[in-house]
Design goal:
The chain has helices at 2-17, 35-38, 54-62, 76-85, 87-94, 105-115, 123-147, 166-186, 197-201, 217-233; strands spanning 28-33, 65-70, 98-102, 151-155, 192-195. By secondary structure, it is an alpha/beta fold. The N and C termini lie far apart (39 Å).
């Protein structure tokens, strides 16, 4: 627990050394989650969040100041801990008008890595991972709702291995149906909206870097556009 808190604080300090937004605004967007909002592998060294990551594109087009607190490798359980306990996260989120959240890919990838692929994975194991992921997303959104009056945009999970076809596509479809149901429930008493990355990436392997699981620049643009659509439909055109 202490390790992840130290890592998050260190990454935040690093970001403060350089401008994290080219567009000053009274409205704030805070991105939290894993390597997807971080823009991993879009730059050579991955030392800082990439300026081509979708939260920055959203900020540019909507005129929002962006703070990117994405952490490569972060799991949903670690995100819950950060949102509840890390004062850097908490103080930053309090000022947010919009919170962008992408999490869950590492929960699933860690299971695949454990079995060195999808073969040999028992459905009971998948069910446990999905149950924990959904609970962690629920806990995160509920805490975000306490911290900020801003709108929360939760991205579901795209298929990082489109070449696997139905063997992974079907389980991911099931997972995202549960994800959708959870966000629909939460939307009745929190300011949360679902952003459907799964459908946006379906049938578009070119949105993912070759021999990788992370979005290309084109994929990041798609993630930005579907997020912007939800912001605009929420009544904030800029």
């Amino acid at each position: 627990m202490k390790k992840i808190i130290y890592v998050l604080c260190f990454l935040f300090i690093l970001q403060m050394v350089q401008p994290y937004s080219l567009y000053a605004s009274s409205k704030q967007l805070v991105a939290i989650g894993d390597s997807i909002p971080y823009g991993y592998n879009l730059s050579k060294d991955n030392q800082y969040p990439s300026g081509k990551a979708f939260p920055y594109m959203v900020g540019e087009k909507a005129g929002l100041e962006v703070t990117n607190l994405g952490v490569p490798g972060l799991t949903s359980q670690e995100l819950v801990a950060a949102v509840h306990e890390n004062e850097v996260f908490r103080s930053t989120l309090r000022d947010a008008d919009y919170v962008v959240l992408y999490i869950g890919g590492n929960d699933l990838l860690n299971l695949l890595k454990k079995h060195k692929g999808i073969k040999g994975i028992e459905m009971d194991e998948v069910a446990i991972v999905v149950r924990n992921l959904l609970f962690n997303v629920y806990s995160t959104v509920m805490e975000l709702d306490k911290l900020t009056n801003g709108q929360i945009l939760v991205y579901n999970i795209y298929n990082p291995y489109p070449e696997k076809g139905k063997s992974l596509g079907q389980p991911l479809h099931y997972i995202n149906v549960q994800y959708s149901s959870l966000i629909e429930l939460l939307s009745h008493f929190t300011e949360v909206k679902l952003v459907d990355a799964y459908q946006a990436f379906k049938g578009h392997p070119e949105y993912i870097l070759k021999d990788d699981v992370h979005p290309t620049v084109e994929g990041q643009i798609v993630l930005a556009n579907i997020g912007l659509k939800e912001i605009k439909e929420g009544g904030t055109d800029s």
